TrEMBL record, chains A, B, C:
It comes from Haloferax namakaokahaiae. Coiled coil: none annotated. The keyword Cell membrane applies. PANTHER family: INNER MEMBRANE PROTEIN, UPF0126 INNER MEMBRANE PROTEIN YADS-RELATED. Residues 9-81, 98-169 form the Glycine transporter domain. The chain crosses the membrane at residues 6-24, 31-48, 60-82, 94-115, 121-142, 178-195. Keywords: Cell membrane, Membrane, Transmembrane, Transmembrane helix. It is found in: Cell membrane. InterPro entries: Gly_transporter. This is Trimeric intracellular cation channel family protein.
Length: 208, 208, 208
């Protein structure tokens, strides 16, 4: 039987999904084909590069062509899709779904890197969350928007809950791949529910 | 007699003060309770995490729960306070004072880390200044404002002067804790004076 | 005969050119003398510091006073120049030329660091490009603009092509200094042509 590396799976899925989401975001911002490609690649590679810098290893995005190539496939896919969409891309189910897939897959990938780097259980949750929300936040900053992680209560929250699920599954001795799969499923499920039912917390004050 | 670690003191004071300042800033930007908490935590942890990445060590914010817990106490405090404030929070003495305390404590904490990491005297000043201004700058970028360090002449300047005071005190052989305490006192004093008397430099040109 | 270190040359040229470009950008944004100096220094040091963090070495900007001193000379030069310029600085040939020089010199400097750090050929191209576009992108984010690397198709592209030229020259066994010089010449030439003839790609869709 072929043994599949759970990190490899989560990383490829996350790269593809975030490259699509980032490219769609760029189209909304009125960027041209080149800007769309750059924002897609930055969204795909941003979270993982931040994660690798934090745990003090050479970012995978610098070491090999692999991550960049997968991201470019995602960008190409997005450019084909963009022409068929109408209205604001960022309210479109295609964007919201690919963004949720990226968030879920990268939260799992970040948790796996945390285990490998030997950080504390707390550090694993933080690293998984940063890997999940990092790429999209950098992309939002680049196009001058307040990052979704600040505007939407149930963007970082699903990532945190999923990473806690990862820890519990590992602690219960689940076999290889199960903690990561559970993490991704929890993050994706919670995020899509939050988008569908528009969960949100009250404002602290009515503004000034 | 109990020996108190000067870094520990400066770190806890800075985390609390910047968590309060960051959370108040978020309320101004119209974010809800979750956004307020995230911005408070990012403001508190941002400067120290940047500092740790620069001197190539695992960020304290990833290694233990301690820093995050202190930051959350600060956020809770801020949420209680926010309801009592009127008008723009960022002109309120409570915001300006907590921001100055954070700047002062983190400039001292950053200088101490510089000594420990064995960087040059010049590097100590830069590291202390980056630790002081880092968290607030990241928070400003996230909510789409030009960072205070660019808009206000006497934000980075007090940090630089305080870190120079730190170096002089160390060079004169002051006992443990004195250089850090002097640094924090100088930064806080200069910053509060600058705010009170609205010190500023002339513009280079009258704009376009 | 005196042996000149190609990295040293490219680094000094890049620091001076980007300090000028960054300071001019700050004047456009209506910042005062202090903000102009900070933005000039951040533009000059930002790309190299990011590069050093990525390849896991203590940033040169923290290790010695050298880089900061060169950047301050560039800022001083810019402040003298600013008073003589009229209209929007960012359309002025002086800004566009100094920005292109910085892009070219830093793409070469980043490629040389990549060789020294032992990263893959692909990593060398990425590192050279990030070093070239990094400082200006950070500066744009700080003053609240979408970074030029996203808006302008032929900003990152010349850097990528120049770094590929660097690799080819090295592979052909060109003597020390030639690959870096070729890289800088290609980047500068392509960038100036792109600015002069307003090369650009079509938008992916007509906006929303």
């Amino acid at each position: 039987m072929v043994e599949v590396d759970p990190f490899w799976v989560m990383n490829v899925v996350g790269l593809l999904a975030f490259a699509v989401a980032g490219a769609l975001k760029a189209a909304d911002a009125g960027l041209d084909a080149f800007g769309v490609a750059v924002l897609g690649v930055v969204t795909a590679l941003g979270g993982g590069t931040t994660r690798d810098v934090l745990v003090d290893r050479l970012p995978a995005s610098l070491a090999t062509l692999d991550d960049m190539s997968v991201a470019l496939v995602g960008v190409a896919l997005a450019i084909v899709l963009i022409r068929r969409l109408k209205g604001r891309v960022r309210d479109h189910p295609l964007f919201l779904t690919s963004d949720a897939i990226g968030l879920a897959a990268f939260a799992a990938a970040g948790s796996l890197v945390g285990v490998q780097a030997g950080v504390s259980p707390f550090g694993i949750v933080i690293l998984g969350t940063i890997t999940g929300v990092g790429g999209g936040s950098i992309a939002d900053i680049l196009i001058g928007r307040v990052p979704v992680v600040l505007r939407d209560d149930f963007y970082a929250t699903p990532a945190v809950v999923g990473c806690l699920g990862f820890l519990v599954a590992r602690w219960l001795g689940a076999p290889s791949g199960v903690p990561a799969g559970l993490c991704a499923a929890v993050v994706f499920g919670l995020r899509m529910f939050a988008v569908r039912y528009e969960w949100r917390l009250p404002k602290v004050r009515a503004g000034s």
